[in-house]
Design goal:
The strands form two sheets. The protein has a four-stranded antiparallel sheet with strand order 3-6-5-4, with helices on both faces. The chain has a two-stranded antiparallel sheet with strand order 1-2. It has helices at 9-168, 173-306, 313-337, 363-381, 411-417, 427-433, and strands spanning 348-350, 357-359, 384-391, 441-446, 452-462, 465-475. The protein is built from six helices and six strands; from the N terminus they run H-H-H-E-E-H-E-H-H-E-E-E. It folds into two domains: 77-272, Helix Hairpins (Orthogonal Bundle), CATH 1.10.287.950; 311-479, 2-Layer Sandwich (Beta-Lactamase). Strand 4 and strand 5 (452-462) form a beta hairpin. By secondary structure, it is of the alpha+beta class. Helix 1 (9-168) packs antiparallel against helix 2. The model is unreliable at 1-11 (pLDDT under 50).
C-alpha cells in the first residue's frame, strides 16, 4: 500500500491531524496501560496488606488468648504463692516454737548433766570412803584375831600357872588365885573378842554388800551421765539445725513475698498486654474493613481499566481466555449430551481428607476429559497459575495435573498440591460462581497457598442453565 503524501495545504492539514490523533491515541493507550498496571499493583498490595492484617489480627487474638491464659495461670500461681506464704509463715512459727522448746530442753539436759556429774562425784567419794572403811574394819578384825590369840595363850598360861601353883602347895595358893582370875579375864576377853568378831564380820558383810551396791549404782550413774551427756549433745545439735531451719524459713518467706510482688507486677503487665492485644485486634478488624473497601474499589477500577482494549499482554490473555472459555462450554455440553450428569449436586465426603474433598457421580469422567485440556491451556497462555471450572457451589470436579496429586495426609502439602474435588469458599471463588452476567470478572486476591493471583473468570452456561464459572488464575506480578 503506497504511503499517503500531502499534495496541498488541505492534505498537509489532514496529515497533521492524523498524526495528532495517533499521537493522542498512543498517549491514551499509555495512560490506560499505566492505569491497568497501577490498579493491578494496588490490588496486589491490597491482597498482601489484607494478608498481613489477617495475620496481625490472628497474632493479636492468639496473644490475647495467651495473655488470658497467662492471667489465669497468674491467678493460680498467686493462690499457690499465698499458700506457700502461709505455709512458710507456719513453718517459721513452728520452728521458732520448736527452737524455744529445744533450747529449754537443752538447758534442762545441761543442768541435769551437771547435777548427774555432781552426784557421780559424790557417789564416787562415798564409794571410796566405804572402801576405806571396809579396809579399816578388816584391820580391826585382824587386831581382834590377835587379841583372841593372846587371850587363848593367856588362858593356857593361867592353866599352866594354876597347875604349878597347885604343885607348890600353900606357897603357890595365892599365885593360883591370881592365875584363876587371869584365866577368867582371858575367858571374858575371848568371849568379848568373839562377840566383837561376830559384829565386825556382820559389819564387813554389810560393807561388802554396800560396796557392791555402790559399785552397781556408780556404774548406773556413769551410764546415765554418759546418756544424758550424749542426749544433751544431740539436743544442742538439734537446736543448731532448728535455728538453720528457722533462718531458711524466714529467707523462704521473704523470697516468696518478693515472688508474690513480682507476680502482681507481671499480672499487671499481662493485663496491659491483653488490653493492647484487644485494641490491636479491634484496629486490625477496622483496617481489614478499610482494606476490603479499598480492594473493592481497586476491583472496580480493574474492571474499568480492562474494559478498553489497548493491545497489551492482558488483552491478549483475555482474548485467548475468551476463546478457551467457549471451548470449555462446548466440552461441558458434549459431556451432558453423553449422559454425564454434570449438574449433580449430591456431594459425597471423601473420608480422611484435610482440606475436605468430595465425590460426585461425574467427577471421574469430568477429570478424564477436562484435566488434559486445562493443562494445555496453562501451557499455551504461559502466564497462568491454573485454570479450572467450578460449579455453582464452588466445587472443583477437576483441576490441573499439578494440583491433582494424591492425598498424603500432610495438610500443607495437600493444601498446595491436591486441590481437586474441593469446594472453594473464598470470596474470589464465590464472586466468580455468582456472576450471572455476560461479562468476565477480574479479581486480584491472595490464594490460601500464598500465591497472589489476578483471577479472570467467565460465567458458564450449559444448555441455557447456569453451571458455574471458568477461571484463569494469572500471576499478578507478571501483569
Amino acid at each position: 500500500m503506497p504511503s499517503l503524501q500531502p499534495h496541498s495545504k488541505a492534505g498537509a492539514g489532514w496529515s497533521a491531524a492524523l498524526r495528532g490523533f495517533w499521537s493522542s491515541y498512543g498517549d491514551l493507550k499509555g495512560a490506560i496501560g499505566l492505569l491497568r498496571a497501577t490498579v493491578i499493583w494496588m490490588a496486589v498490595k491490597c491482597a498482601l496488606l489484607a494478608k498481613s492484617i489477617r495475620a496481625t489480627a490472628d497474632y493479636a487474638k492468639q496473644q490475647k488468648a495467651l495473655s488470658q491464659a497467662v492471667a489465669e495461670h497468674q491467678c493460680h500461681v498467686s493462690a499457690l504463692i499465698d499458700g506457700v506464704l502461709h505455709q512458710s509463715g507456719l513453718i517459721a512459727r513452728l520452728s521458732s516454737e520448736h527452737l524455744q522448746t529445744s533450747k529449754a530442753t537443752s538447758l534442762r539436759l545441761t543442768t541435769a548433766s551437771g547435777a548427774m556429774r555432781e552426784l557421780r562425784d559424790e557417789i564416787d567419794s562415798a564409794a571410796t570412803e566405804i572402801h576405806n572403811l571396809q579396809h579399816q574394819t578388816e584391820k580391826i578384825e585382824e587386831v581382834m584375831r590377835l587379841i583372841s590369840s593372846v587371850a587363848r595363850q593367856t588362858s593356857l598360861l593361867s592353866v599352866n600357872a594354876s597347875i604349878e601353883a597347885a604343885r607348890a602347895g600353900d606357897v603357890g595358893r595365892g599365885f593360883a588365885v591370881v592365875a584363876g582370875e587371869v584365866k577368867k579375864l582371858a575367858e571374858q576377853v575371848n568371849q568379848s573378842v568373839q562377840s566383837i568378831d561376830g559384829t565386825v564380820s556382820q559389819v564387813l558383810a554389810a560393807m561388802a554388800s554396800a560396796n557392791k551396791k555402790m559399785s552397781n549404782m556408780l556404774q548406773g550413774v556413769h551410764e546415765a551421765d554418759r546418756d544424758i551427756t550424749q542426749e544433751a549433745s544431740n539436743v544442742a545439735q538439734q537446736v543448731v539445725h532448728v535455728e538453720s531451719i528457722q533462718l531458711a524459713a524466714i529467707a523462704i518467706s521473704q523470697s516468696v513475698q518478693e515472688v508474690a510482688q513480682a507476680a502482681l507486677e507481671s499480672g499487671a503487665l499481662v493485663n496491659r498486654i491483653g488490653l493492647l492485644s484487644q485494641k490491636i485486634d479491634a484496629d486490625s478488624e477496622a483496617a481489614a474493613l478499610e482494606v476490603a473497601l479499598l480492594s473493592d474499589r481497586a476491583e472496580s477500577l480493574q474492571s474499568m481499566a480492562v474494559s478498553v482494549a489497548i493491545g497489551d499482554k492482558l488483552d491478549a490473555v483475555i482474548r485467548r481466555a475468551t476463546r478457551y472459555h467457549q471451548q470449555v462450554v462446548e466440552k461441558l455440553e458434549q459431556l451432558l449430551a453423553r449422559g454425564v450428569d454434570i449438574f449433580d449436586l449430591q456431594y459425597q465426603d471423601v473420608p480422611h481428607t484435610d482440606p475436605p474433598k468430595f465425590r460426585t457421580s461425574y467427577d471421574i469422567e469430568f477429570a478424564r476429559v477436562m484435566t488434559p485440556f486445562y493443562d494445555h491451556i496453562v501451557a499455551d497462555i504461559g502466564i497462568l497459575f491454573y485454570c479450572n471450572a467450578l460449579d455453582v457451589n464452588g466445587y472443583v470436579p477437576a483441576h490441573n495435573g499439578i494440583y491433582s496429586q494424591p492425598v498424603t495426609g500432610d495438610y500443607e502439602h495437600d493444601l498446595k498440591h491436591s486441590r481437586d474435588k474441593r469446594k472453594m469458599v473464598d470470596a474470589a471463588s464465590q464472586k466468580a460462581v455468582k456472576n450471572h452476567t455476560d461479562r468476565y470478572l477480574l479479581v486480584t486476591y491472595l490464594r490460601d497457598n500464598g500465591d497472589v493471583v489476578s483471577d479472570l473468570s467467565f460465567p458458564l452456561y450449559v444448555g441455557g442453565k447456569h453451571w458455574g464459572a471458568m477461571r484463569f488464575g494469572m500471576d499478578a506480578n507478571r501483569l
